[in-house]
Request: fold
Amino acid sequence: MGPVVGPVVGMVGAGQLARMTQQAAIALGVELRVLANSFDESAARVIAGTRLGDYRDLAVLQAFAEGCDVITFDHEHVPTGHLEALTARGVAVRPGAEALVHAQDKAVMRERLTAIGAPCPAWARVSTAEDVEGFGKEHGWPVVLKATRGGYDGRGVWVCASAADAAGVLASGTALIAEAFVPFEREVAVLVARSPHGQGVSYPVVETVQKDGICVEVIAPAPGLDPEDAAHAQHVALKIANELGVTGLLAVEMFQLPGGRFVVNELAMRPHNSGHWTIEGARTSQFEQHLRAVLDLPLGSPAPAAPVVVMANVLGGADPDVFARYEHVMAHDPGVKIHFYGKEVRPGRKIGHVTALGTDLDEVRARARHAAVHLATGEYV
Reply:
């Protein structure tokens, strides 16, 4: 292999987010290296610069960082202390440990968001049945218990109707916070990017549709959202990125309440499922934007490329031969774009997504849903 001709970005993690980041890196002339657990992982299958190793091992991370201009992530699980150690050695880690911890630890996130005045549900750290009982008496039932670390796609979240319901969760010894149950109208997300020198941009507010704790559809922009409410949500997300010192992407998942108000639900500091629509649906994809941001390049336009964009996740079904169903989807609707992650098919697992663009919301949603359902199951809808 010849000498490196452009900047080198090291991404810890080799899932589908790293895989799609590679597509943007190629166009930018950026060399992307990934740290994978095995060569069978989604990104490791397509990226020549794949290194194998355990991200929980500081020596592995230090070796991986050698020769990289910047280190970034496709997940938030690297120990905070390891990131601090890399930074102390002069490694450019983006986002840095002081920012990323807010996406790693929900208690730390809630404390900081409360301190900066971001809208949050009532919450508290809890460790005993008495703690949960007292929280429920003050804020009402049901009470939502969340693992402070490690939860995703609905995992690590328990909606408890009583203290008895909470007993089993508490018995596990998991570090928890309690949150007041939010009677929201819908879930939305705001994706923003921020560079080291402080430039920030926001993509349109999107609606995320969840089923069994998993996002199944993203609609951009969120339909029927008042422009002033949309601008407020974007302002909140940009403020959080600035106050936390985020470098790269920040996805702010929110609950929309009656009257157009919002409360922040979760944070992610990496490319995010709510931003997959941007590959075809925005002037600058979230993956290119993340690379621009962590390399401190001028950020790209987040403007949408069509009035309506819908992304539908393809969830694994009983039949693993997804590729055999491409022919129908492509012939039925040549305008739909398919993204397959090269992952082993398992029921309920995110194995890809489809994106449709247009002007009529109902039509575009139907096109995306038809493609996603047929790829997953072979059924026609």
